[in-house]
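Entry for the shared binder. Reason: the reviewer on the internal report wants the predicted structure included alongside the sequence.
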Amino acid sequence: MIALLTGKIAYKSPDHIILDVNGVGYRVMIPFSTYYELPETGEVTLHIHTSVREDAIQLYGFRTRLEKTFFQLLISVSGVGPKLARDILSNIQPATLAQALGTGDILKLSSIPGIGKKTAERLILELKDKIGKLDISTLPQIGGRGIPTEDIVDDVISALINLGYKEPQVRKAMGGLDASNGAGVEELLKQALRILMK
């Protein structure tokens, strides 16, 4: 069971990275909260959750142990798998999610793609007390680092579609955004998510 990986970033995208560990490339799925904290190149250490299914082994990586714990709490809830847990953390910052769970904010939770009212209620019921015991002050906050790329808008659209938004919704949200003023993937994702979450 892989629990920790240290290696060089060979490739980085909003939903996964390829980590070169002594010449072996590991594909690691990541939420935006981790993506925002990663450098463009260089060596990094990620806390890993290994998901084993009959047809695949997938690695999910996190910048902090607490973020990994948060992810594992989410997948402990009936009906929430690793992909959905990653998507939840990608659509809402962990600290905000903890607050929504703590206050029983069903409206906020059910606005996340893939989370209906019943799942939101189940998350609150099963995690409210557990989340209250976590020290969320050490969770990473979204930074403003830009990523220079010619296909930046396509990357953002692809990432949002992978999160469960429909392409027409995404393209409508992206219509008012401008990538020409040096805005990076992170900034455009934040702007688009703000529009989509309204």
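Summary line for the report: The first strand starts at residue 4 and ends at 12.
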